[in-house]
Amino acid sequence: MIRNITIIGSGVMGTGIAQSFALNGYRVTLNDISQEYLAKADIRIQADMETMIDEESISLLQKEQALQNIKYEIDIEKALELSDFIIEAIPEVLEMKWKLYSKIEKLISKDTIIASNTSTFPISRLAENASFANRMVITHFFNPAHLVPLVEIVKHEKTEESILAKTIELMRSIGKKPVVVKKEISGFIANRLQTALMREAFYLLNEGVASAEDIDTAVTAGPGFRWAFTGPIEIADFGGLDTWQRVFDNVAPELDKAVSAPNIIKALVAQNKLGAKSGEGIFHYGEETVSNKLNDRDRSYIQLNQIKKKDR
Ligand SMILES: NC(=O)c1ccc[n+]([C@@H]2O[C@H](COP(=O)([O-])OP(=O)(O)OC[C@H]3O[C@@H](n4cnc5c(N)ncnc54)[C@H](O)[C@@H]3O)[C@@H](O)[C@H]2O)c1
């Protein structure tokens, strides 16, 4: 039975993943390379839980119990001592991940399941030198990981079916919506769909078809509004496949087919205009605007989660 979860890497994703488990009664050990990062993670987790309390998604008691479930441990050996399930959430640098795997494989029991939160690496590449490929999976959470329900699960060709089944069950037990990626493919499912849409969004912006604000509104108030409950395949069925056949035949030839990042993005990156983190991207941001926007975003996601819990 899976009770003890070790999360390696307490950054953006590690802190969100830790909360999801701790709020559902699992004992979580969060590991990082410095006490300073672990202290920051503690502050972030407490602040996220405060927002959840404000939105009446959890009680003060649930917060206190969850915090008691989280241990911050800098010593990797101690962090892995009781571990049933490990989630690696360190930076997206293959050599760093390999180095970590070769260290941990000597420290874990033969039953421990090892998951990576990688967003880009194929599992065959990740497990290339690992002795634990039969017990390895990718569990790809989405930011903010304590609020977005989706977890994409990818198995290695050597991953045992029982390991996959346990991983799916574990994700469901913390209220997540796991989906299985059956073939090795770059971008998995959700980032492929998202990139396809964003390529077209930047094409429309570049062509001057609409303002950036209006393009965003065309998604959030239109298809995006529906997508929280009805996926594109069901939408095709509901709209009528004959109708969608005509939509594809008429519109698909006109869609952007670029195979690299949009020019607008390339030009802004070259000027170090990286978006919210540098104060300017497509839009301008003051420091307070960013934190207010993130806070508003999190509150909206918490409310959406409450509605989605009733989703059949
Ligand atoms: N940020 C996102 O939106 C997002 C979404 C999905 C998946 N991911 C993936 O999740 C993983 C983590 O991304 P992130 O955004 O949380 O990164 P991050 O930079 O915010 O956090 C990574 C943390 O790992 C720590 N770390 C580095 N080496 C370590 C080691 N050997 N042992 C223990 N800790 C170590 C760092 O100190 C840092 O605190 C990456 O693989 C990334 O591709 C990120």
Automatic annotation (TrEMBL):
Record: residues binding NAD(+): G9, S10, G11, V12, M13, G14, D32, E92, K97, S119, N143, K277
Pathway: Lipid metabolism; butanoate metabolism
Keywords, sorted A to Z: NAD, Oxidoreductase
GO function terms (MF aspect): NAD+ binding; oxidoreductase activity, acting on the CH-OH group of donors, NAD or NADP as acceptor
Residues annotated as site: Important for catalytic activity: H140
Domain 3-hydroxyacyl-CoA dehydrogenase C-terminal stretches: 187-285
Gene Ontology biological process: butyrate metabolic process
3-hydroxyacyl-CoA dehydrogenase NAD binding domain mapped to chain residues: 4-183
Gene3D superfamilies in the cross-refs: N-(1-d-carboxylethyl)-l-norvaline Dehydrogenase, domain 2, NAD(P)-binding Rossmann-like Domain
Keyword Nucleus listed: no
Keyword Oxidoreductase attributed: yes
Family: Belongs to the 3-hydroxyacyl-CoA dehydrogenase family.
Name of the protein: 3-hydroxybutyryl-CoA dehydrogenase
